[in-house]
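User: Can you write out an input/output pair for a complex, sequences first and structure second?

Assistant: Here is one pair. Inputs:
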Amino acid sequence: MSQFPKLTYDALTVGEEFVSDPHLVTPEDVEAYAFAVDDHHPWFSGPSPFGEPVAHPTLMANQALHLRHGKYIVHAGLHAKMEFNFLEPVRPGMRVRSRGRVIDKYERRGRQYMVTEYVTEDEGGTALVRGQFTQMLIPEGTRHAGR
Amino acid sequence: MPVAEAVAVGQELPSLAKELSQRRIDVYSGVRPRSIHTDEAWAHQKGFRTTLAQGMMSTAYVSEMMTRLLGAGFVKGGTLSMAFIKPVYAGDRLTVHGVVKEARPEGAGTRVVVEVWCQNQHGEKTAVGTASGLAPSA
């Protein structure tokens, strides 16, 4: 059985890797996402220039962003930066998974950050989205002055 | 779909307005205890005045704006890079803006680069960045 240690700046290692479970993209996922972001483009439910419907390009971003949750208990954090390269459309019916690798960690103005590069792939290993993101760690017992 | 010749550097894109209701945040993030997005008491404990929208919701709004501009050339071949510089709270109203900064040849088309930002109802920028996609030439 996997152990889930608490995520701390010290526990985090540059170079460590994460992988998500595969996720079957369903029309219901696309519909829920359309509601959440209030974007009901007709390509998400009907024919598109790619033939069949496609998903919102950013649909699977949370799969990548949550990679660290598959290995650690994450107390709290804030998302600082996000980069996407949309290589191929995500489509309903695909089974997609994300892989990530910590490429940097640093402290700035008393705050701790981690940088992860990621790729989201279909079941055949075709890269759909690549990019990287920066997350701020909010250590246990502290508050973020975010007001 | 617009062609490269119809996109001009300096052109301001039609803005989008988005209401960040708690219900939409719940659907986006999934309702969980001890989440600054969906658990108001936990958000208070972490120093925020209420729950926050995920920064990623702003990237989705920019994606919508770019798909409206470039269509398939954003869905396949698009890029998006954003920094989240101020929290967005449940109940906020965001306006999403874009201005074309560059149009350069790439392959058989033109890569259109857009400066993008989101602004809350107080006029404060909450996220800034750039996005790009491919426009076919005529």
